[in-house]
Amino acid sequence: MPGAPTTTTLAANLDLIKMFERAHWIVQSVMVLLGIMFMIGLYIIIYKTMYLRRASTESDRFQDSFWRSRDIEQIYKQAQALRNSPLSQMFVAGYTELAKLASDENLRGDREGNLANIERALRRAQTVETTKLESMVPFLATTGSAAPFIGLFGTVIGILLAFLEISEAEAAATLKVVGPHIAEALFATAIGLVAAIPAVMAYNFFMRRIRVLRSEMETFEHDYLNIIKRHFLR
Q1: How many CB atoms within 10 Å of residue 4?
Q2: 54 alpha carbon, distance to own chain's centre
Q3: pLDDT score, position 10
Q4: What local confidence, expressed as pLDDT, does residue 16 receive?
Q5: Do 225 and 98 touch, CB atoms closer than 8 A?
Q6: Is the C-alpha dihedral spanning 193, 198, 204, 210 positive or negative?
Q7: What is the Cβ-side half-sphere exposure of residue 82, based on CA atoms within 13 angstroms?
Q8: Pair 88, 82: CB distance under 8 Å
Q9: What is the pTM of this model?
Q10: Is it the case that residue 12 has pLDDT exceeding 50?
Q11: Mean pLDDT across the chain, nearest whole number?
Q12: φ, ψ (nearest 5 deg) of residue 24
């Protein structure tokens, strides 16, 4: 069709680098901030995916060893090797506290006190492991909620500045004149959405995995305390 834009023309108009260079410095700052948030979020997504996968895999291996083996020393050695498992670290904390109580002759007869000490050690370990699991994840929530508004701020500023520039110019405000300025401003919103969408999806995915691991830790704590009651603090 005559007058229809060609592919080459569209590609030239969608040159992202030129759009960035033509934008006002305030809009450029917004774009840079969103770009940094996107890159940090991408790093967190890759790192936490690998970390949570290792934590789940090693926890499964530890639980298999814990319930199959009857030698607590062997379980302890296995737990030390599985450092990424929250369950193994809880076991190490409980085992260390149990060994400390067993070596203190003054505490051997205090069954309830010893059990409370072991329970506190397990709770401390659980808190530490939960903190590790949740580390950096809140940044994804912040990016998911704030990035679209930061991009919208850049878009509003860009459009305002574009209209002010056009009002001061002598040329008529045709679509050909206004279009590039509006496109540059809207580019900030697009970057905000690009940063926010994967961050929100990853945050929901990670929190679901973390809830599963926390549930496993709570169940393991009860099972571990029951075993200690039956076999070590009679």
Answers
A1: 6
A2: 15
A3: 44
A4: 67
A5: no
A6: negative
A7: 28
A8: yes
A9: 0.81
A10: no
A11: 83
A12: -65, 155
161 membership: H or E segment, kind and range: helix 137-168
Is there a contact between 189 and 151 (Cβ–Cβ < 8 Å)? yes
Q: Which two tokens stand for residue 156?
A: 């509003």
Q: What residues contact residue 183 under an 8 Å CB cut-off, 6+ apart?
A: 13, 19
Nearest residue to 41 via CA among 119, 132, 145: 145
Question: Dmax of the chain from CA atoms?
Answer: 97
Q: What is the pLDDT at residue 232?
A: 61
Residue type, 170: E
Q: Are 93 and 227 in contact (CB under 8 A)?
A: no
- Whether the per-residue pLDDT at 223 is higher than 70: the answer is yes
Query: Is the model's pLDDT at 161 over the cut of 70?
Result: yes
Cβ count within 10 A of residue 187? 23
Q: What is the rounded CA–CA span in Å between residue 150 and residue 33?
A: 9
Structure tokens belonging to residue 212: 């599963």
Give the span between the Cα atoms of 122 and 214, in whole angstroms.
13
User: Percent of the chain beyond pLDDT 70?
Assistant: 81
Q: How far apart are CA 159 and CA 149, in angstroms?
A: 15
Task: Give the model's confidence band at 124: pLDDT under 50 very low, under 70 low, under 90 confident, else very high.
Answer: very high
